[in-house]
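Example 4.3 (complexes with small molecules)
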Amino acid sequence: MVTPAGVRAAGVLVEDEKIRGVVGIEQVPSSVPSTNFGDAAILPGLVDSHVHINEPGRTEWEGFYSATRAAAAGGYTMLVDMPLNCLPATTTLAALKAKRAAAAGQCLVDWAIWGGVVSDNQEHIDELAEAGVAGFKCFLIDAGIDGFTMVSEGELRAALPRVVRSGLPLLVHAELAGPVEAASRRLERHDWRRFSTYLQSRPDAAELEAIDLLLGLCREYRFRLHVVHLSTSRALERLKKAKAEGLAVSVETCPHYLHFVAEDIADGATLAKCAPPIRNRENREELWRGLREGVIDLIATDHSPCPPEMKRLAEGNFRTAWGGISGLSLALPVIWTEASRRGFGLEDIARWMAEGPARLAGCDRRKGSIAEGYDADLVVVDPEEEFVASEERLHYRHRVSAYLGERLRGAVKKTFLRGTCVFDDGEFRGEPRGCELGR
Ligand SMILES: [Zn+2]
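Answer. The structure with zinc ion bound is encoded below.
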């Protein structure tokens, strides 16, 4: 059994969907039905605090059924859905209700919802908080999709008192438009089939300037700031200082920044396009150092699929291709492959991919740990098994991913949601029984 505290041989007692206790193997009562998982590792069900499910409105991109199926296959027992890419975007109470109606009865794992903060919805923040969103998300740069506007500093300032009052975290896409627009103008006539052109168009400075702005606002308003998908390692030092100063700042990065490096991305390989972009090898190693030092708190997937034609694979143009990497079902093996190589243990995975995201989403008294009183969400993993990522392991709507063909280590064998096996060696079990999790 693996928890952030360490690894030990143990029996997990489960009753009525909950963990009733964790005991020594010899203390498991012989009178109750039990399953022995042998040498496999049992981790807390993973929590993904950054997923774009796209339903309602863009269900042809992804949907609650297909996304939660991929989640179950990937060892996740809870997803928190981002407020954009669905239509309507989750920026009003009516939109929140529409999302709940769309999700009902379709989910193989539990879920919760982030609300959006956009240019003109300040007066909806209180009611979204009261209605039970896990927190809020905003963009400091164009989100690249209709229906979800970015916020200027002024608009953010108008929203922050309400966010503070809610006590909920504000998740921010931390890139500023200025450096991106200036770089893109310079690159106008460059070859956009080249990954290096795209990388240069989204410089580190865009992230750094955004983070500086956010830390200043955090000092002023004292809101709970969460930086999503940190890509540049150059921000680590200032984030470390901000934490030491006592600001309520948390930081996430994603499997693609911890696995891929810019040097290896082929020209035209738009499956690897995301924003901010995947940076160089040295940057990747520094992000791992950020995890080691605890400056980066958690790993979330930013699973963001689209119909395959939007990746424009035929022309391979990084300017026009959709930015977003999908790989929800492969995140655990991707991270274990990289983490085990660098001397980390499964307990680190439990901390980064279960406990940390559960805390961010405000469900850390029910999810993200194996302990008495928690939901019996468990994932059984063979940490030694190696495989090559193939389409049949993806399970979400469109079987495309930047990870296809990668040799990975660590296979999800079974996933239990509140005591019931929902994924069993490649097969899905039972009817969708995932619920929305209130705070
Ligand atoms: Zn995202």
